[in-house]
Design brief:
A hairpin with a 4-residue loop joins strand 11 and strand 12. 3% of the residues lie in helices and 46% in strands. The chain is mainly beta and 331 residues long. It has a 7-stranded mixed β-sheet, with no helix packed on it. The protein has a 5-stranded mixed β-sheet with strand order 14-20-19-16-17, with no helix packed on it.
Length: 331
């Protein structure tokens, strides 16, 4: 058998019946394996500059394309290592060149399950990789003929910053606090809500979802979540408004995290901001069917309007009517 990089010599002698002889010889050298024609690329990085933009993809997966040189022969080994975004451990797949015909069609054998893959007319081998915003995906291919080993590498990460910022609408003086006199009840909102504006950039698209997580108004150790699907109108304006539930009966920090997610699974960087909710005066009308609560501001009023209420006979009075300093009678 011929060995890469070494000469093979053939001598031939012909002897006729009358003892006449003819002699000829020839030699050939099998070229050593070369990296020429060997490449690996993360396909989502269309311009191969190491940065995947929103214009190039909306998906959290990409094909990894491995091109093999035309000089490969049966028996050559191929190892592909893919380090997915967010991981430090490469996923390794190994193949052998099972056969190659005169037209250049290559049959690879997967060494894990011995399945066959046919690459026709220079078609690359394609594998899957995970990509993510701000996290690098790496790919490496190593080709060996048993004597020589050559390799090629590629890497890329998604750069996308779809949320430009947020603004708490009712914090008129931008001091980071929401006081009772700022918490208006306009535009279908109540005392127990406050609107926030989320500004989006050109990296966002109609159909993307902005996930908004914020401090639970009733349990400040937990969060509530609301999702907003961007519309064409949102994109035209570059902003949308979302009402958040609050509870100004006690002072606390309203922390808001906004994260854009594409339909293809890409998760944008999270933008965060905080608004201090200050206590407010609550005025609540008596309703025997609900729980009525004042707050910590020491000036909350319970209104009894046109009703006759004997508080001594209200079951569970302490739980039903809580923290009111004033009772106002009407009617």
């Amino acid at each position: 058998p011929m060995k890469p990089g070494e000469k093979t010599k053939v001598d031939a002698t012909i002897t006729t019946q009358d003892d006449q002889t003819a002699h000829a010889s020839a030699e050939a050298k099998l070229a050593q394996l070369s990296s020429k024609g060997l490449s690996v690329s993360i396909a989502a990085d269309a311009n191969d500059n190491g940065t995947i933009t929103r214009d190039e993809t909306s998906s959290d997966t990409s094909k990894v394309s491995v091109s093999l040189p035309g000089s490969v022969i049966a028996g050559d080994s191929i190892k592909v290592e893919i380090t997915n975004a967010g991981s430090t451990t490469p996923v390794t797949k190994e193949f052998k060149v099972f056969s190659k015909d005169p037209l250049g069609n290559i049959v690879l054998e997967n060494q894990a399950d011995h399945s066959k893959i046919t690459l026709e007319n220079g078609k690359p081998l394609e594998l899957d990789a995970a990509i993510a915003v701000g996290q690098e995906t790496k790919a490496k291919v190593t080709l060996s003929d048993g004597t020589t080993t050559v390799s090629a590498e590629d890497h890329a990460k998604v750069e996308m910053d779809a949320i430009r910022g947020m603004q708490f609408v009712e914090d008129g003086n931008r001091d980071g606090h929401l006081y009772g006199y700022e918490n208006f009840g306009d535009n279908n909102k109540t005392q127990d809500t406050t609107p926030v504006k989320i500004y989006v950039s050109d990296d966002a698209r109609a159909g993307d979802t902005v996930e908004i997580k914020y401090t639970d108004p009733d349990n400040h150790a937990q969060t509530k979540t609301v999702n907003h699907v961007l519309t064409a109108d949102d994109m035209s304006k570059g902003v949308f408004e979302q009402l958040l539930d609050i509870n100004a009966r006690s002072a606390y920090d309203l922390k808001v995290d906004a994260t854009l997610k594409t339909p293809g699974g890409l998760v944008n960087k999270t933008h965060s901001d905080t608004l201090r909710i200050e206590t407010e005066d609550y005025t609540v009308k008596y309703d025997e069917h609900t729980t009525m609560k004042g707050g910590d501001n020491h000036n909350d009023t319970l209104i009894v309007d046109g009703q006759t209420v004997d508080f001594s006979h209200v079951a569970g009075l302490d739980a039903k009517v809580e923290s009111f300093e004033n009772i106002q009678l009407k009617g």
